[in-house]
């Protein structure tokens, strides 16, 4: 507990710990974060690579319960994503929308779709060409965190920006 | 005679002559009243069917399990039986059954015909009136042994309660296996008691929300197989599949209309909201029923096809709304404290089942079609997705606990909850109509 208390004084460290925690839970099938890509942390990625995007920019944003509003922290992440995507235009982009398990299956498919659309619209507002962007909703069918409490649900309420098409 | 599976065509029924000549009174021994306090299950003795080696005992066992699970019957332990039935066609010694408080007695026999078919017959006796209440015989091929038992259980249920049974039915569902963050989901079908599981998809893509066609031959469901999640139709016997409509965005939450001619579903708009459409399966024409900047989903027709109940968050959080089948007169009907979703209209037309989230719990409940008379039948940490038995007396849903979802049934009193045995995790059950 002492260690966590120490970490909380350093916001940068919190962000890193949070990211690693998420990476540890992620599905091995969809490499969209540092651990899945076999990286141990920031700095190892080639600028402009998918790894660079995931590790240094941050590929996901989180939402409040039953909400698709882009929070202030998410706006910062998405703005960073937009800047990077506008620099590396070779990528096509799929924004995945996800929900936590605290909703019914069909409603959560709709909620995930709305979250993906909200993230997409934000990226478009920051200059990313809408022709590069697609969305898909996974509802609550692809959780990255699997515990039965708030700490997991908050990680599962997410929109993940994934890169496809030409890449390095 | 229409049938669900080709081999079932050979099931044929005929009434057996009454062993007693007294005209049969048309009363029911069991009263179905969901508003009554404790329903006392009717003590019933179900003897092993004579003949057929182990088959006779097996049929008796299936009939016993069906009736017991309904919560309306209390089958008496065989070790308490005094009379050993040797001739199931002869009147039993009623006093021997009355003394162990068997209000009803089932006798029967099973035999092989020369053509290889099974002949099964049963008689239902009212022990206190001292007369036969019902008797029928059935012919079926080997593959339908269990169905014969379910049909007999339905006949007994109907004779004793005055309501149609629901045992000769199937359930389509999603079989789930593997870790929670890498769950394999397969379409599957089984008998309502969990027997005869058959898989209808290979698990390579996510499949969700299968729903039965009223003709029992098809299901509509949602699959990610093309990359984009879409609604499909599947012919259960042939395995033939087709996409329902060719829409630009995700289609989901499908259900058939009661005449089987339409599929109603949600279609994702480009702005991220979802609206409800109906598609005519013959003409392929689509009709938009809602047009709101909200989530409109989980549509379900009333059994006469004139109305649709659905979920919408147009008022802020998800609630239940009813509209005409043409989209007219959209009216909110749920006003309780909580979030309401997955409304499903009862096949009897009188009630709407739903999932409600309140106070950190998920509840399965029913309300009248105007939203009044809400009753919660089951509460839990995580449970959802009710489906109606064809007689409108029992619901099945799925409950997530101990690492994954399992199927559970509950009757309208809320007092009789039963697990449905499945070898893997299971979700999204949809109950078939009675088979034919």
TrEMBL record, chain B:
InterPro entries: 6-blade_b-propeller_TolB-like, Tol-Pal_TolB, TolB_N, WD40. Residues 414-436 are annotated as: Disordered. Residues 1-28 form the signal peptide. Keywords: Cell cycle, Cell division, Periplasm, Signal. It is found in: Periplasm. Residues 31-133 form the TolB N-terminal domain. Part of the Tol-Pal system, which plays a role in outer membrane invagination during cell division and is important for maintaining outer membrane integrity. This is Tol-Pal system protein TolB. The gene is tolB.
């Amino acid at each position: 507990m002492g260690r966590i208390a120490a970490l909380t004084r350093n916001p940068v460290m919190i962000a890193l710990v949070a990211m690693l925690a998420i990476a540890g839970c992620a599905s091995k099938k969809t490499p969209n974060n540092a651990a899945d890509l076999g990286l141990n942390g920031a700095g190892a990625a080639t600028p402009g690579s998918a790894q660079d995007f995931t590790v240094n920019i941050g590929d996901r944003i989180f939402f409040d319960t039953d909400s698709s509003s882009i929070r202030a922290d998410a706006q910062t992440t998405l703005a960073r994503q937009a800047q990077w995507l506008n620099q590396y235009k070779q990528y096509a982009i799929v924004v995945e929308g996800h929900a936590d398990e605290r909703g019914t299956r069909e409603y959560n498919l709709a909620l995930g779709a709305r979250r993906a659309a909200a993230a997409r619209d934000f990226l478009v507002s920051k200059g990313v060409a809408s022709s590069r962007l697609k969305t898909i909703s996974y509802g609550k069918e692809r959780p990255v965190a699997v515990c039965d409490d708030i700490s997991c649900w908050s990680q599962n309420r997410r929109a993940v920006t994934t890169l496809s098409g030409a890449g390095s | 005679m229409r049938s669900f599976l080709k081999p079932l065509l050979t099931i044929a029924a005929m009434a057996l002559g009454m062993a007693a000549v007294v005209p049969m009174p048309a009363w029911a021994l069991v009263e179905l009243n969901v508003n009554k306090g404790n329903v006392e299950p009717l003590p019933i003795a179900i003897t092993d069917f004579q003949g057929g080696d182990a088959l006779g005992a097996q049929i008796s066992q299936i009939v016993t399990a069906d009736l017991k699970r309904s919560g309306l019957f209390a089958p008496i332990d065989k070790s308490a039986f005094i009379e050993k039935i040797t001739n199931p066609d002869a009147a039993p010694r009623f006093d021997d059954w009355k003394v162990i408080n068997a209000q009803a007695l089932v006798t029967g026999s099973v035999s092989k015909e020369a053509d290889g078919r099974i002949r099964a017959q049963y008689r239902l006796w009212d022990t206190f009136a001292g007369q036969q209440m019902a008797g029928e015989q059935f012919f079926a091929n080997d593959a339908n042994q269990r169905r014969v038992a379910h049909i007999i259980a339905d006949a007994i249920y109907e004779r004793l309660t005055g309501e149609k049974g629901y045992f000769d039915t199937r359930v389509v569902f999603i079989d789930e296996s593997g870790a929670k963050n890498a769950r394999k989901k397969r379409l599957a079908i089984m008998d309502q008691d969990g027997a005869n599981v058959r898989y209808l998809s290979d698990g390579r893509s996510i499949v969700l929300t299968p729903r039965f066609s009223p003709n029992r031959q098809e299901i509509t469901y949602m699959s990610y197989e093309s990359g984009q999640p879409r609604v499909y139709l599947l012919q259960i016997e042939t395995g033939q599949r087709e996409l329902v409509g060719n829409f630009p965005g995700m289609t989901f939450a499908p259900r058939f209309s009661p005449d089987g001619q339409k599929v109603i579903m949600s279609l994702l708009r480009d702005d991220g909201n979802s609206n409800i459409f109906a598609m005519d399966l013959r003409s392929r024409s689509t009709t938009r029923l809602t047009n709101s900047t909200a989530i409109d989903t989980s549509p379900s027709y009333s059994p006469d096809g004139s109305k649709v109940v659905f979920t919408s968050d147009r008022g802020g959080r998800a609630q239940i709304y009813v509209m005409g089948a043409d989209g007219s007169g959209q009216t909110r009907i749920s006003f309780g404290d909580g979030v309401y979703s997955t409304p499903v209209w009862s096949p009897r037309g009188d009630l709407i089942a739903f999932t409600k989230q309140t106070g950190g719990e998920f509840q399965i409940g029913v309300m009248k079609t105007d939203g009044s008379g809400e009753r919660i039948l089951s509460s839990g940490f995580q449970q959802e997705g009710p489906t109606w038995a064809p007689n409108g007396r029992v619901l099945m849903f799925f409950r997530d606990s101990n690492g994954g979802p399992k199927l559970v049934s509950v009757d309208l009193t809320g007092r009789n909850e039963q697990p449905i045995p499945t070898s893997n995790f299971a979700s999204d059950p949809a109950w078939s109509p009675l088979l034919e």
